[in-house]
Amino acid sequence: MSILVTGVAGFIGFHTAKALVKRGDRVIGIDNINDYYDPRLKEARVAELRAAPEFSFVKLDIADRGGMLALVAANRDLTGIIHLAGQAGVRYSLENPYSYVDANVMGTVVVLEAARRIDRLSALTYASSSSVYGANCKQPFSVEDPVDKPVSLYAASKRSCELIARSYSHLYGLPATGLRYFTVYGPWGRPDMAAWLFTEAILADRPIKVFNDGKMARDFTYIDDIVAGTIAAHDRPPRAGHAGDQVAHRLYNLGNHKPENLLDFIAAIEQALGRKAKKQLLPMQPGDVIESFADIDSARRDLGFAPNTSVEDGIARFVAWYKRYHNIN
């Protein structure tokens, strides 16, 4: 038996595949290794995964219909898919909207079409985002809250994925779980995320861009906690009839349940680096939100999800990795 992990060269995909291999699963990883950010970082992640004999890699775009169907046809021992591929980034969606439709919407439809052709499929788990909550004012965000007012195309594309996955569960009985991730950070993280951008700028003695004058909060969630929640969700696929829902589709928030002020997050990076940041205070950016805060009660109850990494510890681990990766003493 084996598990297909899409977006395996990405931040969460890499760590998820690594954890699956470590516990003894066979993993087939796919990724198109695009240039949204430096492909060398993605290639380095894949190179580390290739060291394990239980891992195999196929360079493939999830929107490639023929390629995806051929892949599942050639791997008859597949029993699960963890779908983490997609076009990330709220701000980039203002510049290149088509890539979000191609990767997130069309790509997810192709993955679902492939999934329903797997004879022994036990679970499909896919990445959504806290961005779907948009301009909701109620805190913390609950999966029961309405999410029909996205403030970015990225958010809209992720909400579309949730609706499409639910329809496939209804039509074909696919057991599908969507995970709304809240601001994931940690070693091997993305260069367009706050931890990397701030660390890079502080080390270069450049000012960091602090939007909304720093009056923002995020439910920063360490990568190991996210991976634990992702695998727990995959190991516990939904069933029709659970909690009165006749469709085998569930949504969960995976967050730290403790929003951190952006300036406190920066202070943790300063502490880990032993340097002070130069701050360039800027107004709010289009598509951004003031605060994210995850209600994780259902994830705790159903998945045993229990994030326990403080921002101080998580940032210290990220900074240590960042220095090793860039050969900084």
Provide a descriptive summary of the structure in words.
- There is one protein chain.
- The chain has one domain: 3-Layer(aba) Sandwich (Rossmann fold).
- α4 links the parallel β4 (78-83) and β5.
- The strands form 4 sheets. Strands 3-2-1-4-5-6-11 form a 7-stranded parallel sheet, with helices on both faces. Strands 7-10 form a two-stranded parallel ribbon.
- It has helices spanning 11-22, 39-50, 65-74, 97-115, 153-172, 194-203, 223-235, 262-273, 297-303, 311-325; strands at 2-6, 26-31, 55-59, 78-83, 123-129, 176-181, 184-185, 207-211, 217-218, 221-222, 249-254, 260-261, 278-282.
- 40% of the residues lie in helices and 18% in strands.
- The chain is an alpha/beta fold and 329 residues long.
- The N and C termini lie far apart (43 Å).
CATH architecture: 3-Layer(aba) Sandwich
Order of helices and strands: EHEHEHEHEHEEHEEEHEEHEHH
What is the helix fraction of residues, given as a range? Answer: 25-40%
CATH class: Alpha Beta
Distance N to C terminus: 43 Å
Report the total helices: 10
Total beta strand runs: 13
Biggest sheet layout: 7 strands, parallel
Class by alpha and beta content: alpha/beta
